[in-house]
């Protein structure tokens, strides 16, 4: 066991971890931040996506010890202190970009990272970027639409609700 | 103007806020004080005899609480099957035992052998590696045709030939169908595979068992679509715990698609172990475990023959199917290839004679059960493929051939037992032709061809049967459960409402849509109404969510309970306004006396019910809470027409979906936004089945597609924006909302559209290919064109 220290959602945190403890296990288990989900064990699904030092990272691909000294942001960290939603979160609700909600934190964190790098992505760019996040409910239609809307693009012409 | 509240409004989903902010409450988010963790040691061979299992050394490992094996479950019940099919000779199906932990033999890769309970999950996993286990490997059987041979390896020692049942439907039609096919002007024959799939809800299964010695109560938190059903199956058949001592909670559940209907060994284990150890025991499936322990879906091999007369009218249909059951019977497995499949074989067409034969087969694979659509996609796929093939053989337009044979008069009694109440198949086809711009296809094909691509158009229809019922009928057909739903509407003193429903929401948005109905009926704001579901301690009874039944059955129960509330509230209002009860009207949350300006508000009445100072105590009880059980008189029959356009790269065989359009008739619609979302998701799963997904075993029963590295899930760039429409409405005639159900339609209607389009594309390139099996992967498509 070794001690690890990092900043999560603006707060300094520390804990004893085994070498094999994954960052996602530390976030969910030690910090009890259960908004970050685990949907697979091969780094494919993206439900565990968080931001580490501003980069989108699947927190199942990183040991907790590797995040020593890092700035980590989880889904809980992007929501306003008063519970207010970011533009991405709000667009997901407005355009029905989620159903069961399990992939949603990863999707929102992924979309947030995308819009930081590419403020007005095309449909094709969004679909390409989201390849690392699997959703089984929505067929991606309303997720892509929500991200386009969150980036200020007119989605009125896109078919259906 | 679209409505902004009540029935028909696209109300935004209230559940979204917690999911978007990471404050949902999924089963794995729940931890009990002092909980231990269980890791299951699972079989790595498909078939074998356990010759030695020694847990002595493993039990001494750090943190180990106890290791359980099959021996600990002798005398404990078998995981039950909820549906008993009677075969065409009048014999009941073969129903082998399904132990919680393997007893002597393992029958599929993933079959649980031992359960290691430890203080931490890592310690449990470490200890599993120290278990001494010897398995004498036996020959495995994976292929269904091989399994039916007399000398095939026996999955269950007392069952040579591995046949679970041989079902015929309608058996009395058999000879007439044979004769009609023999004498027909044209017969189109097609052999096809409905590929084995894995449902893959994004949340893996989780079970957390607790035991309270003080009151002898067990609690199971589990990822279930129907907690009350789990309480019944596990309590009564496996562990012998009466309902009043067993609470089952299914909190936020991250998708189900059928595979979370069933009662699983891990649920029984955690409940059992928590009682044995007087300590909470938690299991969280990894995705790899999910692939080899969640019930799989589909896996049918079918030969279908469609007979037509000289004028291209359908005269008879015969279909023979082998249906894979896997190694054990999962909860509703026997019903899927029979009553959920055979009864749908008429589709949208007036074929007068139909015979369906299904042989259900045991193999050394994971059990197979309902997956989104369950039997109905299998029926739709074979029917719509053979109709398309017939059109091509006869040189007629596939849409015209369908239109010619449409059922147009309702109610319509099919030759396969069910009676369709309503539908308008020409109308949905008209709508499809409009939204899919079928007329513009030829020009789009030219554009594709100019780029060196082939372009194909596939069209099909579907009919679905939702809200399986009524209970007395399904009981005759072998169901070991009722298929009603219950609802309790609890009006509080201040007028707010809690609706306890037995339906379970795991993505369908019931917390938003159900209040829209009650708000419409009472004329009060939606935010005054909350839905309570997923907990046997809070909801009196329920049969859960599957088969697109929530609104049609659960919603109807809620309507009936709300009607009782209105009746009682009117009695109270008539007393408060000293008027005749017959003159009381309820509108916009106000009770008025017809023809007068007298009124009392909803809140005045509800307060009077709980503070009955001025109240007709001699006539009615205080309080305002009503329960209703609703048992439908028939299924509902949503229908629609779907179109898919693909581009095919002849160099690589890669197929891309360029356009996908769906025109559905779901009856009345409560929340159009949610309905569209359900169709989108269903289409993506159908496209996944058609082009990408396939669960693959090798000949030894090793599961080759056991992770997302090998099982191709549709990603965002595999699908386009879809065009969906549900403006064709023929309301259901036998439920109070006139609703039909929309959850499975997309997955039912889309696979044949995709494959019809792929075949069309190949034929447009001059390739003499009449069929390709799913998934139409690039290698298969390339081989079909260049074989």
From TrEMBL, chain A:
GO molecular function: 2 iron, 2 sulfur cluster binding; metal ion binding; oxidoreductase activity
InterPro entries attached to this UniProt entry: 2Fe-2S-bd (IPR002888), 2Fe-2S-bd_dom_sf (IPR036884), 2Fe-2S_ferredoxin-like_sf (IPR036010), 2Fe-2S_ferredoxin-type (IPR001041), Beta-grasp_dom_sf (IPR012675), Diverse_Oxidoreductases (IPR051452)
Pfam families per UniProt: Fer2, Fer2_2
SUPFAM superfamilies on file: 2Fe-2S ferredoxin-like (SSF54292), CO dehydrogenase ISP C-domain like (SSF47741)
The keyword Oxidoreductase appears for this protein: yes
Claim: Iron-sulfur is one of the keywords in the record: yes
This protein's UniProt keywords: 2Fe-2S, Iron, Iron-sulfur, Metal-binding, Oxidoreductase
Domain named 2Fe-2S ferredoxin-type: residues: 2-78
Gene3D superfamilies with a match to the protein in the record: 3.10.20.30, [2Fe-2S]-binding domain
Superkingdom, taxonomy of origin: Bacteria
Position of the signal peptide: none
Name listed for the protein in its UniProt record: Carbon-monoxide dehydrogenase small subunit
UniProtKB/TrEMBL annotation, chain B:
Keywords attached to this entry: Molybdenum, Oxidoreductase
Entry keyword annotation includes Oxidoreductase: yes
Source organism, top-level taxon: Bacteria
InterPro entries associated with the record: Ald_Oxase/Xan_DH_a/b, Ald_Oxase/Xan_DH_a/b_sf, Ald_Oxase/xanthine_DH-like, AldOxase/xan_DH_MoCoBD1, AldOxase/xan_DH_MoCoBD2, AldOxase/xan_DH_Mopterin-bd_sf
SUPFAM superfamilies (alphabetical): CO dehydrogenase molybdoprotein N-domain-like (SSF54665), Molybdenum cofactor-binding domain (SSF56003)
The keyword Oxidoreductase is assigned to this record: yes
GO molecular-function terms, A-Z: iron ion binding; oxidoreductase activity
Aldehyde oxidase/xanthine dehydrogenase a/b hammerhead domain span: 21-139
Signal peptide extent: none
Pfam families named among the record's database cross-references: Ald_Xan_dh_C, MoCoBD_1, MoCoBD_2
Protein name per the record: Xanthine dehydrogenase, molybdenum binding subunit apoprotein
Species in which this protein is naturally found: Primorskyibacter flagellatus
């Amino acid at each position: 066991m070794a001690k690890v220290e990092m900043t999560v959602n603006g707060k300094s945190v520390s804990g004893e971890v085994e070498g094999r403890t994954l960052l996602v296990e530390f976030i969910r288990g030690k910090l009890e931040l259960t908004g970050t989900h685990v949907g697979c064990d091969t780094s494919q699904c993206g439900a565990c996506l968080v931001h580490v030092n501003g980069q989108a990272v699947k927190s199942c691909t990183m040991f907790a010890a590797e995040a020593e000294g890092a700035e980590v942001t989880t889904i809980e960290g992007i929501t306003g202190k008063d519970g207010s939603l970011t533009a991405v979160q709000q667009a997901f609700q407005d355009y029905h970009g989620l159903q069961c909600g399990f992939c949603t934190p990863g999707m929102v964190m992924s979309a947030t990272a995308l819009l930081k790098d590419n403020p007005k992505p095309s449909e094709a760019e969004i679909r390409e970027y989201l390849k690392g996040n699997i959703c089984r409910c929505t067929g991606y239609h309303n997720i892509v639409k929500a991200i386009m809307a969150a980036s200020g693009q007119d989605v009125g012409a896109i078919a259906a609700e | 103007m679209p409505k902004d509240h009540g029935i028909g409004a696209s109300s935004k989903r209230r559940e979204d806020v917690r999911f978007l902010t990471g404050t949902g409450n999924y089963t794995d988010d729940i931890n009990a004080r002092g909980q231990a963790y269980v890791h299951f040691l699972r079989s790595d061979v498909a078939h074998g005899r356990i010759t030695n299992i020694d847990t002595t050394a493993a039990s001494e490992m750090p943190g180990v609480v106890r290791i359980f094996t099959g021996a600990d479950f002798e005398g404990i019940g078998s995981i039950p099957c909820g549906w008993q099919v009677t075969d065409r000779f009048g014999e009941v199906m073969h129903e082998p035992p399904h132990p919680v932990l393997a007893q002597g033999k393992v029958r599929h890769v993933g079959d649980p052998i031992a359960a290691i309970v430890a203080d931490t999950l890592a310690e449990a996993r470490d200890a599993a590696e120290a278990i001494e286990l010897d398995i004498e490997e036996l020959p495995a059987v994976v292929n269904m045709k091989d399994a039916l041979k007399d000398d095939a390896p026996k999955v269950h020692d007392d069952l040579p030939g591995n046949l679970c049942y041989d079902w015929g439907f309608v058996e009395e039609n058999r000879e007439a169908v044979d004769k009609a096919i023999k004498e027909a002007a044209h017969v189109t024959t097609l052999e096809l595979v409905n590929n084995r799939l894995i449902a893959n809800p994004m949340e893996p299964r989780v079970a957390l068992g607790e035991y309270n010695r003080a009151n002898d109560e067990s609690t199971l938190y589990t990822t279930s679509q129907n907690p009350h059903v789990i309480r019944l199956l596990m309590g009564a058949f496996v562990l012998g715990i009466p309902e009043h001592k067993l609470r089952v909670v299914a909190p936020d559940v991250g998708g189900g698609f059928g595979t979370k209907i069933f009662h699983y060994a891990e649920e029984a284990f955690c409940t059992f172990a928590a009682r044995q150890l007087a300590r909470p025991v938690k299991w969280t499936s990894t995705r790899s475990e999910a692939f080899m322990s969640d019930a799989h879906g589909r896996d049918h091999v079918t030969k279908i023959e469609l007979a037509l007369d000289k004028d291209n009218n359908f005269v008879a249909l015969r279909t023979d199917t082998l249906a894979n059951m896997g190694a054990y019977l999962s909860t509703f497995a026997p019903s899927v290839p029979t009553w959920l499949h055979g009864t749908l074989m008429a589709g949208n067409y007036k074929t007068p004679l139909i015979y369906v034969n299904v042989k259900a087969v045991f193999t050394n694979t994971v059990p197979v059960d309902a997956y989104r659509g369950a039997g109905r996609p299998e029926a739709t796929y074979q029917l719509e493929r053979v109709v398309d093939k017939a059109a091509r053989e006869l040189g007629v337009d596939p849409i015209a051939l369908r239109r010619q044979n449409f059922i147009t008069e309702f109610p319509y009694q099919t030759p396969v037992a069910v009676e369709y109440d309503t539908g308008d198949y020409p109308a949905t086809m008209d709508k499809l032709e409009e939204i899919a711009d079928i007329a513009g296809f030829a020009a789009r094909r030219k554009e594709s061809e100019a780029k060196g691509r082939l372009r194909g158009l596939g069209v099909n229809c579907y009919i679905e049967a939702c809200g399986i019922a009524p209970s007395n009928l399904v009981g005759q057909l072998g169901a070991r459960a009722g298929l009603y739903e219950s609802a309790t509407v609890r009006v509080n003193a201040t007028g707010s409402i809690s609706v306890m429903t037995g339906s379970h929401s795991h993505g369908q948005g019931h917390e938003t849509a159900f209040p829209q109905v009650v708000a419409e009926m009472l004329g009060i704001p939606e935010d005054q109404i909350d839905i309570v579901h997923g907990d046997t301690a809070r909801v009196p009874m329920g049969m859960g969510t599957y088969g697109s039944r929530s609104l049609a059955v659960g919603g109807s129960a809620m309507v009936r309970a709300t009607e009782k509330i209105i009746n009682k509230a009117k009695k109270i209002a008539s007393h408060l306004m000293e008027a005749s009860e017959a003159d009381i009207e309820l509108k916009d949350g106000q009770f008025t006396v017809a023809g007068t300006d007298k009124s009392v508000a909803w809140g005045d009445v509800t307060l009077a019910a709980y503070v009955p100072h001025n109240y007709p105590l001699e006539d009615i009880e205080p309080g305002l809470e009503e329960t209703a059980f609703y048992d439908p008189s028939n299924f509902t029959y949503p229908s629609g027409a779907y179109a898919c356009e693909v581009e095919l790269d002849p160099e690589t065989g890669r197929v891309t979906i360029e356009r996908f359009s769906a025109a559905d008739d779901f009856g009345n619609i409560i929340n159009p936004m949610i309905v569209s979302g359900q169709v989108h998701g269903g289409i993506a799963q159908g496209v996944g089945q058609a082009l990408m997904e396939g669960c693959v075993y090798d000949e030894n029963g090793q599961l080759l597609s056991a992770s997302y590295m090998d099982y191709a899930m549709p990603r965002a760039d595999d699908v386009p924006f879809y065009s969906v429409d549900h403006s064709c409405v023929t309301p259901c005639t036998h439920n109070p909302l006139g609703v039909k159900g929309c959850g499975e339609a997309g997955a039912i209607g889309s696979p044949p559209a995709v494959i019809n389009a792929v075949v069309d594309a190949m034929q447009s390139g001059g390739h003499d290919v009449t069929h390709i099996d799913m998934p139409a992967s690039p290698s298969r498509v390339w081989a079909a064109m260049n074989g």
